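Hi all, long-time lurker, first post. I run a small reading group and we've been trying to get comfortable going from sequence to structure in the token notation. Rather than ask abstract questions, I figured I'd post a concrete chain and ask someone more experienced to write out its structure so we can walk through it together at our next meeting. Sequence below, copied exactly:
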Amino acid sequence: MPPVNTPVLHPDLTPAQRDCLEALPLAGNHVVSGPPGSGKSLLAAHRAVHLALTGRPTLLLSRSNLLRQLLHGTLHGITVPGAPAEAATVHGWVLRRFGRDVPRTEDGWFDWTDLVHRVAAALSTDDADTPHLVVDEGQDLPPGFYRLARLAAASVTVFADECQRLTETNSTLTEITAALGRSTGRAEIAGNHRNTREIAALAEHFRTGGPRPAPPARSGPLPVIRHYSGEKDIADDIAATAARNPRHRIGVIVSSLRTATGLMRRLERADLAYEPRLYSSAASSGRYRDIDLARPGVVLVHRASAKGLDFDTVVIPDTETDAATDPTSATLRMAYYVMITRAREQLVLGWQGTRPPRHLEGLDGRPALVETAEQ
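-- Answer (accepted) --
Happy to help. Here is the structure in token form:
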């Protein structure tokens, strides 16, 4: 007899999110797609809780360690006693499952073909320790991972948006579905519960494909394009923003660790109400690795780690670093689509130099999208 999907009431979900969650059978593989702000990460956490109730180990996986920390906090608030689900990175899960001597390929990932062969050689028909896997931001993982997960998991549920691919080793929804098998179920979740209409309208300028999402219900201030004279100017503006919004979580999304550390030094001397924090994926532990994203204040984070996060205010201070890039490039547009849609209430796009970078040119002439502010 196939498992019965036993719904758990989750009052923090919208009716559409709850309907999507409860319509997913507990058995089989599934791919759930949706635009930024539709609640995919929250749904992924709730899906993990549902699957944990079957009694099998259940892992909520992400590529990013910073997103893993966020998902861990979400799970902590909703996990059912006696049926825990665990948040982990894909790297961490693979190393735990196969050992630290896992072979790697030139792209820096694991040798997925080798791992598939290992699992296939030891396949058991009924292993109670075989986990359910739930994957958040699944578009940033390669097809080889999904071929492995198909064999190594009791079920795989993937939450993804292929308009938000930020890595060179990524997958489209079609590739994910093909790797997981022909019987993989597909579902969609609509809505944008994160951004204001004004922020979503600017993000739409950079979206690369797919159906146009419905505009959010909330309204707010227009995004701002701001010219900075230098690093001190940026830090002063961030400090002033923090002072005006003492309860805001302010995400400063930068293109390099060098920029982040320079701003961090200045912000540490700015007498902010909350100590500024910097996340570095290179740190193994400590203050630059373990970040409380629910706390108000300033967090500096590299673009590569911004996926799946959200902040009340987002500042992207160094858009001039993309000045030489073709403004029609899908990679560039996806990057800005992701960064812009991290903002809940306020958004600042900053630049230095004598003229705005090409991908921002013309935006300040469209008052329905942004306003311009000189520093």
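A couple of things your group might point at:
Residues 65-78 form the longest helix (14 residues).
The CA atoms of residues 71 and 227 lie 35 Å apart.
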